[in-house]
Amino acid sequence: MRMKNCPYCKAPGNFYFKIFSRTYNWCSGCDLIYKESQDSYDKVVAHYRDDYFSRYSADQMSGERDRLFGRILDLIEKKKDTGRLLDIGAGCGFLLAAAQKRGWEVKGIEPSRQSVEVAQRQYGFDVFNGTLQEYDENGEFDVITFVNVLDHSVEPWKEVSKAKLLLKSNGVLFLRFPNGLFHSYLFKVSKKLSIERSIARFLVFHEYCFTPKFVRRLLSDHGFADVVVYNASLSGGSLIHRLRRLHGLPQGIEAMEKLTDLISGGRILWGPSLELIARKK
Ligand SMILES: [Zn+2]
């Protein structure tokens, strides 16, 4: 489906950039950057259900994200000590395992059957095999997490709305997502330098590129308060493996990010990934 107008606030979209055959538009109303031609909900879900495990599970299994999950839980535990935690797009259950070790009662939702089987075999977790929209069990959660998941969704606002229903009052929502401004800016600069072909494969563009302004609006529209957006440290996933070939670029990015955080008191959000914590009103 081709979308000239913003799929969220319906304001007219403006051409933002084109990466190979994909055009991304920017909405001046809500600051969302969105793919102009979008796949159907069913096609996107089928990809995560059927193909994702074989292509990306090696990254998940590498153990390189353990440090990331520990840090995410440290951040969450500043708001909630413990309770019931639901991870959306739980993969093979590594965040759930880290949370359970720290005393959380955990539940996951994951469309890939193979990932669910790994989570069950390895940890005995009862992960719901399906999407958040299909999840119809009752259950109120203290915390809901989306780690690199929401920007893949065709209608992320529906996911946020469903998450709100499943959260207890004052429950915590945690998001981690690629920083849309960082990736699109780097792509535009690389295009000017005619090096976009070598840079593009390090950049992350899914259904949407989220900006801090957009996610703040999305959450405030859906009844969340105390929204704080942070620069996230690098995850150590596959992107970093590939970036390592570029002679110290990841270390450079991380050092610049820390320096910017220090100078701006965390106000300049320019890192490759952002994290957000909000509270259900
Ligand atoms: Zn909009």
Provide a descriptive summary of the structure in words:
The chain is an alpha/beta fold and 281 residues long. It has one domain: 3-Layer(aba) Sandwich (Rossmann fold), CATH 3.40.50.150. 40% of the residues lie in helices and 24% in strands. The strands form two sheets. A seven-stranded mixed beta sheet has the order 6-5-4-7-8-11-10, with helices on both faces. A four-stranded antiparallel beta sheet has the order 1-2-3-9. 37% of the residues are buried. Bound molecules: zinc ion (ZN).
Order of strands, widest sheet: 6-5-4-7-8-11-10
What are the distinct ligands in this entry? zinc ion
SSE arrangement, N to C: EEEHHEHEHEEHEHHEHEHHE
The CATH topology: Rossmann fold
The overall pLDDT, averaged over residues, is 86
Query: What integer value in Å does the Rg equal?
Result: 18 Å
Number of discrete helical segments: 10
Specify the CATH class.
Answer: Alpha Beta
CATH homologous superfamily assignment: Vaccinia Virus protein VP39
By secondary-structure content and strand pairing, the structural class works out as: alpha/beta
In angstroms, what separates the terminal alpha carbons? Answer: 35 Å
Question: Fraction of residues in helices?
Answer: 40-55%
For the biggest sheet, the summary is:
7 strands, mixed
Total separate domains: 1
Shape: globular
- The CATH architecture term is 3-Layer(aba) Sandwich
Relative strand content: 15-25%
Number of strands: 11
The unreliable regions are none
